[in-house]
Specification:
By secondary structure, the chain is an alpha+beta fold. The protein has two domains: about 100 residues, Trna Endonuclease, Chain: A, domain 1 (3-Layer(aba) Sandwich); about 90 residues, Aminopeptidase, CATH 3.40.630. It binds coenzyme A.
Amino acid sequence: MKNLAMRWLEGWSAATGHPWTDEHGVIRIEALMASRRFEYLLVEPNDEEFDSITALIDGDSRDVVTVFTNKPDHYLVPHAGLVVDRDDEALMTCPLARTDSPVPDGFETQGFEAQGFETQWDDQGDRVSLHVIQGVQLAAAGNLAIVDHDVIFDRVETMPRFRRRGLGRFVMQSLSSWAIQHEADTGILAASGDGQALYETLGWQHKCAMLMFRGTEDVGR
Ligand SMILES: CC(C)(COP(=O)(O)OP(=O)(O)OC[C@H]1O[C@@H](n2cnc3c(N)ncnc32)[C@H](O)[C@@H]1OP(=O)(O)O)[C@@H](O)C(=O)NCCC(=O)NCCS
């Protein structure tokens, strides 16, 4: 699990630009937001490891602890200075296979073109963003980064009024096709609850839970 979590971190950092450090096994990501400071990553930590990060944060609400685990109930108990921020996220993976269906044909045949949707790609070599727009409105979007043969998907989203029309599936399939053409063979992502429902229909597998905790004290505000 640690290996997979680190592969996700490498790709997520490449996709989002968040720098991270590993100092004596303490993995810390810079949040790059005024309301956030650091995000600490722990993989199935023992009680001592969990407590040492809790002590480091010292209740600061700008800090987040993310725990990758197959034993979520073990961690979902009261911890002094921390509250549960999210308990519905999961790390998922999917082997990517070549398809014969190029993206533009898929767009047309799925009827999106006829509904006035257009795609905009921002291709930066080993990172790409896809936006689906209708007129001036953003309908759906997704991002990815490729690291070695992994492709890490990030910020896949369909705007509320465009949901359940197949756009999320289209974005994932389009980004996957792009990644396959760039020699990626394994997809990795951190999925929200809604995201898991989508990704499961596309053959993705749940690998472990991702629990997020944050400090309880409004320090420095
Ligand atoms: C998750 C999300 C991207 C799905 O986008 P979408 O465009 O609505 O997804 P699609 O229409 O392509 O869904 C395809 C299939 O996935 C499944 N699915 C998608 N969203 C679902 C949901 N909320 N609940 C249950 N099943 C869902 C369904 O099987 C659906 O087919 P159906 O509509 O014929 O039943 C969208 O709900 C969203 O943006 N949520 C908020 C942001 C988020 O959580 N993003 C994911 C980050 S990992």
